[in-house]
Design brief:
302 residues; alpha/beta; eight-stranded parallel barrel; two-stranded antiparallel ribbon; 43% helix
């Protein structure tokens, strides 16, 4: 396990983080506790949740686990505020998250999405207030594009405020938009990148075929809207190429897809999810996979 400093913060986060989006949705509390126990035992210290995950249930599950295990000071706790990003909404959101998470501080508080309605100045001022109050240690954003992040940092800098420590984008072998502008911007501004969906919500596992049935209980069955992100002619073609590389190398599609993201320059931490401890372990196997320059290039050019 590697540990990397997140942006300009003093947070040292594990190169593999645990995404808690499925807690209270696909995974019940007992199984979530098993996963979090195992993740911590393996050295994962970044635990990422959000108020929007299972309507707050994910935060509640994480909070009860933290309390029962007494591990608050052993982890980097990250959560997010969604919806309207007015000052009043952000303040009420963080208070509710603190209650659900059973803590008095959030290490990394993130804006879940860009808000077209709330004034950016009001949103960022509210975040600065939370840091001044000690309720939030560092701030970040999720699903921001390069221009949105640039605007936020410019306004924060002009006011002498703390700037975004991180951005959390979707990134994998078939979703690559961040490479053109966001990754270079983060490198220039010292913003950490916490990427999610390294397996494309399961798309890169090879269990989906063009025109084939959607297995019951899978992510694309539970959240059909994800199909529009991944189910395209070009993406199915890339999956078949990935299958060919896996067959030729003797390394599974899952391992290859995970290893590619974990080894991408500029990525601070890769969030993984899963239903079993084996799903966590496979990320560690992928990180340990010898990734040659030729193999990395082959995967990049799928």
């Amino acid at each position: 396990m590697k540990y990397r400093v997140l942006g300009k913060s003093d947070l040292s986060v594990s190169s593999i983080g645990l995404g808690c989006v499925t807690f209270g949705r696909e995974i019940d509390e007992a199984n979530a506790f098993v996963l979090m126990d195992h993740a911590l035992d393996r050295g994962i210290n970044l635990f990422d949740t959000a108020e929007a995950y299972a309507a707050g249930t994910s935060e509640e599950v994480v909070g009860r686990w933290i309390e029962s295990r007494g591990v608050r000071d052993q982890i980097i706790l990250a959560t997010k505020v969604a919806g309207s990003l007015t000052r009043k909404r952000i303040q009420s959101s963080v208070e509710a998250s603190l209650r659900r998470l059973k803590t008095d501080r959030i290490d990394l508080f993130q804006l879940h999405h860009w808000d077209q309605e709330a004034p950016l100045a009001e949103t960022l001022a509210a975040l600065e207030d939370l840091m001044t109050q000690g309720k939030v240690s560092y701030i970040g954003c999720s699903n921001y594009n390069a221009e949105q992040l640039r605007q936020a940092i410019a306004y924060q800098t002009s006011n002498g405020w703390s700037t975004m420590s991180s951005v959390q984008p979707n990134y994998n072998l078939v979703v690559r938009e961040i490479e053109k502008e966001l990754i270079p911007l983060c490198a220039a501004q010292q913003v950490g990148i916490i990427s999610y969906s390294p397996l494309g919500a399961g798309f890169l596992t090879g269990k989906y075929r063009k025109g084939g049935p959607i297995p019951a209980g899978t992510r694309f069955d539970i959240i059909p809207g994800h199909q529009g992100i991944y189910f395209s002619e070009d993406n199915f073609r890339k999956v078949e190429k990935l299958r060919d590389v896996a067959n030729a190398s003797g390394v599974s599609m899952v391992q290859l897809a995970l290893a590619w993201v974990i080894n991408q320059p500029g990525i601070t931490s890769v969030l993984i999810g899963g239903r079993t401890v084996d799903h966590i372990d496979q990320a560690f196997h992928a990180e340990a996979l010898p990734m040659t320059a030729d193999l990395q290039m082959t995967l990049t050019q799928l």
